[in-house]
Amino acid sequence: MSMNIPAKNLQLLQSPASFHANLLGLISNARSRILISSLYVGSTEKNLVDALHSALDKNPKLQLHLALDLNRATRANDSSVSLLLPLLKSHPSQIKVTLYRPPSIIASTLVPARFNEGFGTWHPKIYAVDDDVLFSGANLNSSYFTTRQDRYILIRNAPTLVDWCQSFLRAVEGISYTLALKAGIDSGRHDIIRPGYHLRWNGGKTSPFATRFKAKEALLQLSQGKEPEKIVAEPGHVTLTPLIQAGLFGVRQEEQFLKRLLSSVCGSKSIRPAVHLTTGYFNLHAPYRRALLSNHNATFDLLVASPKANGFFGSKGLSGRIPEAYTLLERSFMSAIQGAGRADEVRLLEWRKPEWTYHAKGIWVSPANDQLPTMTLFGSTNLSKRSADRDLELSFAMSIPDANKEDADVLHLRRKLSEEVKGLWQFGQAWNGAQKDGERRVRRGTGILGWLVGGML
């Protein structure tokens, strides 16, 4: 399903602080609905919870739906669930908290709680209030509001889009748990009872391990509607297409779209399109990598997190080796560029900003390197093997019909997209992953570890 959105209704935010301020501002003015989808809510986010409390107090008709990941939101004693329980207690008729569970037996029984997330998570980021929606790749944690760079797209007055997002969250309820204060007399065999709260399984008699068919059917129903090429361009509008990626359920809309895009984008002999691609976790899904390297009709500029800009840098235990694993993946990619003879057409940069980490992801396509973008992909995907095969992701392709490229509102949006690229790439430095010391030191055994868990990166 695709939809037309007035270009003047889109605003691109630049900083984590702006993301935080706009999110709180939206919540404070809520009238009918708040939809929040994130991996988790940080245990210290009292300001956010207080804002939700205040909004619900002011308007008894206001309904709040929080969709989070089961494993991440229940990890440790100071979990997202612990933070949200007082909110649920004070407004039980206004709040619904759903917790997505991947259909993997291994994920629940054989590995430590923190590593469960490697087998699949709920990853969509939606922050919608009434008919406005803020999309990002950011989670709800203090670092994402201060020193962790992401992308932030605010769309105002878009009821059809927010309705679709609400339908998306409802579609996944059937393969999720709902948070309750205590177990009821109708508790099911798949429910989870923990000290202080109860997780009610919404799938009825369907086992949490057998949700693949049910989830695929529900998710694919959301895609019914006009295809992008059949949408009639309206003056001053852009076209927005939701792309669901749920490899565990056989739903691969984003993958199908990106394989076509990366392999077919082309221009003329004298002018080649420019593709900018960024991700904080560079383990490019193999079909994307093949499409990119085989396309000689466009140039590709890639921006990835430097080791110190990786959120796992300096972590204790095995997670501290994650930046090292990405160094090995980047070296493999650079070798592939050389082997394909694409060194002049494919460039890899690393994002560096002192004391900051990098979490932005997306793609921009311009008719040429010196022209404004006419398409962008934004959302939750890291464009990685894990995003394609394990996590449940939601992204959006925003395209600008040829007839609207010079429209004043559309032209303003295209300039803002160009500024967004420049704002991220200004911190891009030449890739130095070939070095063997300092932050690029790869300890013995990391290669084997990366091979074993490569699909989780």
From TrEMBL:
GO terms for molecular function: ATP binding; CDP-diacylglycerol-glycerol-3-phosphate 3-phosphatidyltransferase activity. It is found in: Mitochondrion. The keyword DNA damage does not apply. Its EC number is 2.7.8.5. It is an enzyme of class 2 (transferase). Keywords: ATP-binding, Lipid biosynthesis, Lipid metabolism, Mitochondrion, Nucleotide-binding, Phospholipid biosynthesis, Phospholipid metabolism, Repeat, Transferase. It holds the Pfam family PLDc_2. Coiled coil: none annotated. This is CDP-diacylglycerol--glycerol-3-phosphate 3-phosphatidyltransferase. It comes from Pterulicium gracile. GO terms for cellular component: mitochondrion. Residues 118-144 form the PLD phosphodiesterase domain. Belongs to the CDP-alcohol phosphatidyltransferase class-II family. Pathway: Phospholipid metabolism; phosphatidylglycerol biosynthesis; phosphatidylglycerol from CDP-diacylglycerol: step 1/2. InterPro entries: PGS1, PLD-like_dom, PLipase_D/transphosphatidylase. GO terms for biological process: cardiolipin biosynthetic process. Its main location: mitochondrion. Signal peptide: none annotated. The keyword Electron transport does not apply. Transmembrane segments: none annotated. Functions in the biosynthesis of the anionic phospholipids phosphatidylglycerol and cardiolipin. It catalyses: a CDP-1,2-diacyl-sn-glycerol + sn-glycerol 3-phosphate = a 1,2-diacyl-sn-glycero-3-phospho-(1'-sn-glycero-3'-phosphate) + CMP + H(+).
